[in-house]
Amino acid sequence: MSDLLRTRPSSTAAALALFDDAATIGHALAFEAALARAEAAEGLIARDTADTIVSVCASLRIDPAHLAEEATLAGTLAIPLVNRLRAAVGGEAGDAVHKGATSQDVADTVLMLQAKAATELLRNDLDRVCAALYALADRHAATPAIGRTLLQDAMPVGFGLRLAQAAGGIDNAAHRLGAEVSANAKIQFGGAAGTRARLDGKGAAIARRMADDLGLAAGVPWHARRVGVAAIASSLGIVIGALGKLARDVSLLAQNAVGEAREPAITGRGGSSAMAHKRNPTGCQITLSAAIRAPGLVASMLSGLPQEEERGLGGWQAEGPMLADLFLLAAGSAEAMAVVVEGLEIDQTAIARNLAAAGVGADIGESESIVAAILAHHRKSD
Amino acid sequence: MSDLLRTRPSSTAAALALFDDAATIGHALAFEAALARAEAAEGLIARDTADTIVSVCASLRIDPAHLAEEATLAGTLAIPLVNRLRAAVGGEAGDAVHKGATSQDVADTVLMLQAKAATELLRNDLDRVCAALYALADRHAATPAIGRTLLQDAMPVGFGLRLAQAAGGIDNAAHRLGAEVSANAKIQFGGAAGTRARLDGKGAAIARRMADDLGLAAGVPWHARRVGVAAIASSLGIVIGALGKLARDVSLLAQNAVGEAREPAITGRGGSSAMAHKRNPTGCQITLSAAIRAPGLVASMLSGLPQEEERGLGGWQAEGPMLADLFLLAAGSAEAMAVVVEGLEIDQTAIARNLAAAGVGADIGESESIVAAILAHHRKSD
Amino acid sequence: MSDLLRTRPSSTAAALALFDDAATIGHALAFEAALARAEAAEGLIARDTADTIVSVCASLRIDPAHLAEEATLAGTLAIPLVNRLRAAVGGEAGDAVHKGATSQDVADTVLMLQAKAATELLRNDLDRVCAALYALADRHAATPAIGRTLLQDAMPVGFGLRLAQAAGGIDNAAHRLGAEVSANAKIQFGGAAGTRARLDGKGAAIARRMADDLGLAAGVPWHARRVGVAAIASSLGIVIGALGKLARDVSLLAQNAVGEAREPAITGRGGSSAMAHKRNPTGCQITLSAAIRAPGLVASMLSGLPQEEERGLGGWQAEGPMLADLFLLAAGSAEAMAVVVEGLEIDQTAIARNLAAAGVGADIGESESIVAAILAHHRKSD
Amino acid sequence: MSDLLRTRPSSTAAALALFDDAATIGHALAFEAALARAEAAEGLIARDTADTIVSVCASLRIDPAHLAEEATLAGTLAIPLVNRLRAAVGGEAGDAVHKGATSQDVADTVLMLQAKAATELLRNDLDRVCAALYALADRHAATPAIGRTLLQDAMPVGFGLRLAQAAGGIDNAAHRLGAEVSANAKIQFGGAAGTRARLDGKGAAIARRMADDLGLAAGVPWHARRVGVAAIASSLGIVIGALGKLARDVSLLAQNAVGEAREPAITGRGGSSAMAHKRNPTGCQITLSAAIRAPGLVASMLSGLPQEEERGLGGWQAEGPMLADLFLLAAGSAEAMAVVVEGLEIDQTAIARNLAAAGVGADIGESESIVAAILAHHRKSD
């Protein structure tokens, strides 16, 4: 059973791969391997027991379809996965698997590993968008164009100011996302009730080792303290909205009656099944669609915050698929808009015609210096 | 690439199958076949041309992965799918494929076919939930229990009243969903700009034939009039919330210190990776998780309503995956709660103990007649 | 302390008056009066006791500011209000006030009375919108105009088809709202734990009398069964979204480069503090703004559905202000769009010019018969 | 017309005062006064003209009701307000009022001034919550209690760990809010199309002066770049959710069958209109109610991000009331939970009894060191 058509065109193959079954199972086994290594280093389990576990984690093949069925019954992925790992390791070493950990430790760590990888992928496309937009903004900073407010012709602007403003929003959103992921993509390791019990007082040390091993931030358990995840989700929602602002503008400028800019012509893209002459703003469509979908996902992430006691019922279990969807939508939008702005066709004749029609002169005020200030801020913050 | 683990345990295999790639492609080809048949019946295309198209629709095999890649570029599934179908039919008959239709006609009709099938599946589980709950409510209508308000012991209630109230909400929500799907799961057939142009004035007749053929309601095109889809989505949100109310109550009653009811013991279900003695309320978890996720999806559906002009940019394209998610969550919750209530363990000793501890007597007022009224309403509306 | 500026321009004075302190206190006292009358009729309290209570309810003056302070401490309006009423009635009759009722009975009944009144107000403006739009649609059904899809020029449409589609969506949404309010604006009367205890078995009869008295539907208590309120809220969200679709189209058509329609010129409306030449689409602004705000309110209403046990903690208390906001936004949007469509300026020259520029001929297909079908459906359902 | 009852008990009088009509008008006049001062300092208008404007701004009395009516027609508060100010100043000095500014400059600056003041108010109560919780956490760090996961008894925890975790989340959320407000509460000054035209190139200098004068951050215009406002809104949503987690826990612990903690007894608070014996968790109710309402508001803020071109239609106009609501809900929740935790009654006997009943020993693992780590992190970040 494949579900690819539901995920496209809103996301990209590269982003989907970061959240697919193979990636999820791989990260879960990486958690168990890191745990075994850390517990051996702290003397909780024998070194060769850890070696065996690590080795089985590296070679174990798990059928996602079977695992999914069992996860449904168990209510969590970790239980059937750990059962398989224990059986594959076997004997006393098998008993040492997952020692001191709980299902949510696995689930949350997997999610954070995926968040980190997806952020890196996403940042690359966001950088592409900003670089292309800033370059265009710089080039067109002094080109007088009619500015539009409340969807009506207003007063002149430098055409590049519009682009610089869009870029500035995306840039700011990208930095916020990066900062939130750096701060909150933490190892989860607390055990059954989040106390790191039965670890001979070595729990904090084990968690630190695991964090280093897996490339995550260290810290105390956060099973029912979900503000970090919520902050990552919100940051993604803001990234998508900032891209949506750009998509809104490009799609408005690309209207036939306006014609100031349009998406690049790409074979197979933006066609119509009924009208051969059309060039649909497909990149903008993907992004505006994401900008409709993302806010609801963020709301649901926030509404899950009041989780019960040590580890909640329903709240954290809801987060995984929603955070994945937010990353997938962000990745799809960023890639789509990178293609759009890297090939954006700007029609200076249309810009001049529309400005003349407005009859409000060509005084673009301080447009150029505002563009320069936005560019300078960008260079400083990078 | 498989994505099963992101969809479980929140949904069921049966529901996922209704929205998978095979189902989507199958419905899209069914649209094209129904269109060809209807256009032949109305004399727009030759009968044997239609026969050829119908026959190819029945036998065509399409690789979802390739189609997904092309759909991403095109921004829609229909363009690459129609291209393949035309190529497979070939010649003049190939030119007759998709005649007078637009991509959105296919996408919306596919979505409505999936909505209809999913509603049927869902109604079956909702009926199970209601039947089991009403039976329990009837049996325990006169059992005095402590009623709780604002999470504090309040005054006595008939234990069955609590169950009848939960059932009544689910029942009402199920009927609303059924009514909205019946009214709004309509054929979409309007062509490029929703005018049914180039069909020799036979557009309405073709649409009626297609609706009959595919088992959908007939009507005028609704490309940018999305209130029907929004109403289906809202109804699903209400179904999930009503199931969530039941899950909330069962999970509160199942707390160790309360112990009035708990989920049935099922091998492999509700275990803990760290605590063998626990019986987690896994069905409630699935449902409460869905009740966190659904409202955001409904919000996003509603925020997409102001779609542009004849066919919008981004709005309707966002709806498909979100409506699918709502159906998937509803199906997962309904199935989970059906299992929970069909095997619900009610502990009369705990009920009596908690009531006695409250020290407010055992006057359950009109609990029995309220339960009877809810049951009577249910029997009448079915 | 007044808060008027936060509520404008998004709503109207008439709608705000339905939800202001005077209205709320008035409805709460009407509840207590209806309760006394019904209990006297059923022999639970003496007739002259009821007369005294009813009389005091009619004359009691309560300072909203003081009541608000006490309501904050109590967590509910009803407790301090009933205390005042009891004190004002005095003696044994005072003890008979609020007999068998609970705070939530008052709060929910007040909310439903406000919902009913606001729906009537709203329906009036929605009818104005539909009537004006259908008339315009009929007049311009055969006027060829360029249809636009994905924000690009596509194929010709009858200009009136666009208006008829917008009207059809609003019409459908208005009917759904009316039906949901009729079905769900119910008396709430259940007492402390929703069992109608201590009423000598007359609870159902008292509730029926109160419903008749107050003009609400009768039924069993629904303290923790909130699907009806959620359905009203969703229906409002759909109404606002349907109005938003109209506002989106008018604002796009009113762009200077398009110019096919624009809002009427009204003194004091749509001006600019910086640009005297502008005519801003202020009615569309109000409506698009509401269409951004409403979906989140609906989501929050749905996320409150899983309320705890007999009467929940936080869920129903959240509903009142949100349902009020939805009605206020709907009323503001409906009134704004009524003004817009009743005075809509349609520029046939611009329509013709834009169509010619598209170069796709003037075949409007079955536009006229689709408009006729939408109009016929409207006439039938009214 | 007063609307106090719709705003209580969810917010506080102090918070409401920050957003009431007097505050809004006061901030708007402060904007105009600061603008006049800055323009005089930069030589754009005469010093005595500025003095006159400043003086009238200080003494002008505006009736909110009249202003609200006119704002509804104009679609914005600024137009009628500036008209009155111009008339009051009169003559040539009147023409100098609002020079180079646009309505949105006023609206956004007012909103940011309110955001700043509300954040300060809020931080005070958040600090109270954290201080009280951390003190309790420290005191009860070593008290063995049963930990609960998925609403089932699980393994022992230090009772203080639960409190420290809740505090840590609130603390983190409070810091994020503070940082976002510091970074994003910026002066808005861009003029009609955001170019600072007709200011002799002094626009940036004027904006800096105004920012200093009003206590806001400086920067380029951000009329259609709303990521900063969205980030403030999200941060508020996270604050409310973090308070909601605490409220969830307190309300669960306060259940009669659990009894480990409960809200303080306060005269007039948490009573019941039907049950004199009850002590309702009113502070938790206020907070859980806010936690239901906030996510939808955040979603709507995010869905407004894709605003059109230089200044959008509907998007930014929607933000003001929603951001105000978020601050009001946050303030109400923070104050409520400050009262709750400062007087929290902890029942050590119940804690011990519940732990014994679970029969899982009393090994609280590293609870104490985790509490210590959370406290140390708090001290460092303050």
Task: Describe this structure as you would to a colleague.
Four copies of one chain form a homotetramer. With 382 residues, chain A is mainly alpha-helical. Helices cover 66% and strands 4% of the residues of chain A. Chain A is built from 15 helices and four strands. Chain A has helices at residues 4-7, 13-18, 21-41, 47-59, 64-74, 78-89, 91-96, 103-139, 159-184, 203-214, 227-253, 282-303, 315-342, 348-358, 367-381, and strands spanning 144-149, 152-158, 261-262, 345-346. Chain A has a two-stranded antiparallel ribbon with strand order 1-2. In chain A, strands 3-4 form a two-stranded antiparallel sheet. Chain A is elongated and about 85 Å long. The two termini of chain A are 44 Å apart. Chains in contact: A-B, A-C, A-D, B-C, B-D, C-D. At the A-D interface, strand 1, strand 2, helix 9, helix 11 and helix 12 of A face strand 1, strand 2, helix 9, helix 11 and helix 12 of D.
